[in-house]
Amino acid sequence: MDEGDENDSFERTDVAPTLQPQLRLYRRLLLSRHDLDEAKATVEELLASRIPLPRSDRPSALLMALTTALVVSYARPFVNSRGQSATAEKAIPGSLLRVLSSKAREMHDLLLEIRNQEIAHSNADILEIYLKLHQDGHTAILRVSRSPFLSKELHAIHGMIQKLEGEIERRCAELRTVLPLGDWI
User: Fold this and answer.
1) Helix (H, G, I), strand (E, B), or coil: what is residue 140?
2) Would you say residue 133 lies in a domain?
3) Cβ–Cβ < 8 Å for 4, 176
4) Contact (Cβ atoms closer than 8 angstroms) between residue 80 and residue 94
5) Does the N terminus or the C terminus of the chain have fewer Cβ atoms within 10 A?
6) What percent of the chain has pLDDT over 70?
7) Which residue has the higher pLDDT, 88 or 68?
8) What is the spatial distance between Cα 112 and Cα 80, in angstroms, rounded to a whole number?
């Protein structure tokens, strides 16, 4: 924090209507950077913790929770949020994905698919569900197709996030050349 920042008030300065689209984009990029930082921290935690992948049993609840957190935080910037926001764009521009290789883009698409089909929505069509009904209840076998990422995949996701963060920072730097500096906006 700069010395002068301690006395700054948090009153917003109005931004010219012609600059509102740039301001909305800047805010979305900032929010997206935060989400990607969360995803990157989750990847780093998964790699550091080395939670074992069981060969025949289900993965631990902690491993699945961290996998879910990774997918959700990574996907958040790319999924149009509900409703209208006067503050920020609904999603970051798809053009940011140009920094990804075709293989990284496939991983990106997989992460969004996992988010959409298995995490955000329980898609019964992709799950294996076997039921045996009894007078007093049921016996069920449920096989979820989602599985934790392997170390190699986690490293690839980490690299993708770093590239995306670099592109977000580049775009933010461009926007700072046209937006007012030194004021709360």
Assistant:
1) strand
2) yes
3) no
4) no
5) N
6) 83
7) 68
8) 12
Six-digit token string for 166: 């670099």
Please report, for residues 36, 71, 73, 157, 165, the alpha-carbon distance to residue 43 in angstroms, rounded to integers and kept in the order given: 10, 10, 11, 8, 15
What is the number of domains present in the chain?
Answer: 1
Does residue 8 lie within any of the structural domains?
no
* Tokens (6 digits) for 178: 């046209």
d(CA 149, CA 71): 10
| Residue 110 tokens, joined | 């997989």
Q: What is the pLDDT of residues 95-130, one digit of tens each?
A: 999 999 999 999 999 999 999 888 876 655 556 677
Q: Which residues have a Cβ under 8 Å from the Cβ of 179 and sit 6 or more positions away?
A: 15, 19, 22, 23, 26, 185
Which residue range forms the structural domain that includes residue 132? 16-176
Amino acid type, 93: P
Determine the Cα angle at 65 with ends 63 and 69, to 5°: 115
- Give residue-wise pLDDT tens across range 13-67: 888 999 999 999 999 999 999 999 999 999 999 999 988 877 767 788 899 899 9
Residue 27 is assigned to a structural domain of this protein? yes
Let me know: does 113 contact 150? Beta carbons within 8 Å: no
**Pairing between β-strand 137-143 and β-strand 128-134 as defined by DSSP bridges:** antiparallel
Residue 37: count of CB within 10 angstroms of its CB: 13
